[in-house]
Amino acid sequence: MTSSKHICYRTVISITFYLCFSFFALAITAYAWFTITNQNDARLISDLTEIETSYQFYVYQDHYNQGDQLKDLYNQLCLDTEVFCYKEIEEPTINHLFNGSIAPGSRFSFALVITNLTDKQAYLKLDFGGIRSTQAPDAYNLIQIAFEYQVTKISYMNEGVETPDRSTYHPIIRYQNHFGLSSNELYPIVKNVPTLDIYTGSNELIVYFELYFDPSIYGRDLEGNPYPNSNIFMNQTLWIEHLYMMITIHPEEGA
Questions:
Q1: Where are the domains of the chain?
Q2: How far apart, in Å, are the Cα atoms of 141 and each of 28, 192, 234, 240, 255?
Q3: pTM of the prediction?
Q4: Hey, CA dihedral for 149, 62, 58, 242, is it positive or negative?
Q5: What is the DSSP letter of 145?
Q6: CB 50 within 8 A of CB 15
Q7: d(CA 210, CA 196)
Q8: Rounded distance between C-alpha atoms, residue 77 and residue 66, angstroms
Q9: What is the pLDDT of residues 125-162, one digit of tens each?
Q10: How far apart are CA 133 and CA 120, in angstroms?
Q11: What's the pLDDT at 253?
């Protein structure tokens, strides 16, 4: 668990709070067939926030890369087992988030727990950033375009029991998209998530999200015709360098 310090930054227009996850420098590498691995000691979290919070990050351990189907974090922690469970990844560094062979259709599950240590409502926004592919044959057939991301559940711990999914509740806006070709773009995951549950008052928020290697994305040849398979992505590496977590006092307007 990591506790954030109370630091106040003000601007004329707004007050923005960034929890910058130099997340994973997640190296998703497609070796013949596909392998996923983190190749360096990336800092997990550097935070800047006005409200006091604590947070924990979990990776679902699954040798078959099918992802978590239950999404019941505290009943799936890696205590007596090291597989089909959520393992907490503690700061300051991550060595190897993922290892092993993967293929199109592989799914990777994560859970982020944020505890609001104040009585003030605040709203969470998550974005991926620093998306890039290496060893690609050209500028268009990048392995990143084959990866889809989405939030799969948002819940709260209330008196030791996890609430039902709140991800479709107002004012939450969640996204399900593939990464594009740009390495400079921010890819929104979810926004306007109350850190205090508006129904129970719980201050412990759980956000589940996934990365999915979409087997229907094949890439295209120079004439724009789709390839018949995913082989164009072999030997490429996808880097996800940041997960940005922003907490604001007011929800963000617009979609």
A1: 2-7+17-248
A2: 15, 33, 11, 17, 29
A3: 0.85
A4: negative
A5: G
A6: yes
A7: 23
A8: 17
A9: 999 888 888 889 999 999 999 999 999 999 999 999 99
A10: 40
A11: 83
